[in-house]
Amino acid sequence: MKMKNTLLLLAALTLLVAPFALYGSGASEFAGTDDQAEATIREVRPEYQPWFRSLFEPDETGERRLFNLQAVCGLTVLGYCLFKLRQRNRNGNPHASETR
Amino acid sequence: MHIMEGFLPITHAVAWTVASAPFVAHGGHRLNRQMREHPQTKLLLGAAGGFAFILSALKLPSLAGSSSHPTGTGLGAVLFGPPVMAVLGTIVLLFQALLLAHGGLTTLGANAFSMAIVGPWMAFGVFKLARRMGAGLGLSGGLAAALGDLSTYLTTALQLALAFPDAQSGFAGSFLKFTGVYAVTQIPLAVIEGLVTAMILNLLASYSRAELQELAVLNR
Fold it and tell me: Which end of chain A has less neighbouring CB within 10 Å, N or C?
């Protein structure tokens, strides 16, 4: 399992850094597809007016921080649950290491 | 895949909300039953929720020269079934609509339909099929997550094309345009999502074998 996961991790990391290798540090400033879709809507239907606005809209730094906060919350919960699961399975089930 | 606040005409916004609501309600019911009948799987549910929270918060640059979000819903769909993910996915979307101005309340129904319903059902179907064909847990889960991710974005393109058909080329032309926006960016990200989901499933197979058996994801 360790070997398999190391390979999977390497493959994922390669795909993650490939854009930076290709486009340099500008890759972190890429336009998001959500915004591109909005631009496409304006192109297809220039007269369309959004009829509702977000109640709360953070500025760019705030948005980045809140996204990071979301990721950190998720990571904390995931980490805690994995840790607890591992502990429980170790204590209760000594043969819990095989895949498939 | 977040359709921005106010960017669906009212009729479409209402229709997608009506379409999503029963799935989410049914999911809530299933989630309650799951917790009552299999309380020992709560930690696993926490892990699946945390995973979806992390992945949907990442805005990743793609090889295509633009950036987008993975969805993170494939893992939970494989473990707990699509109805449970209808609830977890909608919670994530609500959080992002209210605090991050990503997506919106008026588009919550449409976004839930693509990310919390179509994506998880696609993932679940692919997983079952791959397992039946003899693929291992990691490979099946990885394929499921990657295709679930792509199906979410295709659904968004479909929703936008329905709402904004092109003046000349109509629905089909518009669908191609929106698919063009998403597909190229999303393919490498879907592969990343598949790889990471496979990793987590491999980890769970050794850390949490008893719970996976309890959920009938692995045979006893």
Answer: C
d(CA B195, CA B31) in angstroms, rounded, equals 27
User: If 0-12 CB within 10 Å is exposed, 13-18 middle and 19+ buried, where does residue B27 land?
Assistant: buried
Could you report the per-residue pLDDT of A66-94, keeping only the tens digit for each?
999 999 999 999 999 999 999 988 876 54
- Give yes or no for A9 touching B (CB within 8 A): yes
Return the structure tokens found at B124: 């679940």
Q: What share of chain B is helix, strand, coil (3-state, %, to 5)?
A: 75, 0, 20
How much is the pTM?
A: 0.93
| pLDDT beyond 80 at A16 | yes
Contact between A77 and B53 using a beta-carbon 8 Å cutoff: yes
- Which chain A residue has the Cα nearest residue B140? A100
Q: Does A21 touch chain B (CB under 8 A)?
A: no
Amino acid at B19: A
Contacts of A40 in chain B (CB under 8 A): 160, 177-178, 181
Cα–Cα nearest to B64, from B156, B147, B180: B180
How far is A72 from A64, CA to CA, in rounded Å?
A: 12
